[in-house]
Amino acid sequence: MIIALWIATGLLALLFLAAGTMKSLTPREKLVEKMGYMEDLSDGQARAVGILEFLGALGLVLPAATGILPWLTPVAAFALALTMAVGTGIHVKRHEGFVPTVVLGVLALAVGFGWIFLG
């Protein structure tokens, strides 16, 4: 079961690492072209979301992999789930599809609880 948890954690981390890197390094004007919801965010907010996703991805893997403060892995997962909850709210407000953010949020919750109970 721990192997499945590591696979889910790794995939989730890769997704958030890619999304966070893109959002933190790409100018918001270019992001708006691809992601309409970025219109609702300022430049600083868009960059902050990217940085939070990037750090969350690192927090999913590094503490558990190194054994240094491993309790941070579920904390990172729950923080990413909270980020996805806010993202879902933005998509609902804009009448956009919100299923991907819900799926990522639920997966983050599952990973968080997995590390609490199995890790």
UniProtKB/TrEMBL annotation:
Which key words tag this protein in UniProt?
A: Membrane, Transmembrane, Transmembrane helix
What subcellular locations does the record give? Membrane
Q: How does it sit in the membrane?
A: Multi-pass membrane protein
The main place the protein resides is membrane
Q: Which GO terms describe its cellular component?
A: membrane
- The reply on keyword Transmembrane helix is yes
Q: Where are the transmembrane segments?
A: 71-92, 98-118
Asked if the keyword Transmembrane helix belongs to this entry, the reply reads yes
Protein name stated in the entry: Membrane protein YphA (DoxX/SURF4 family)
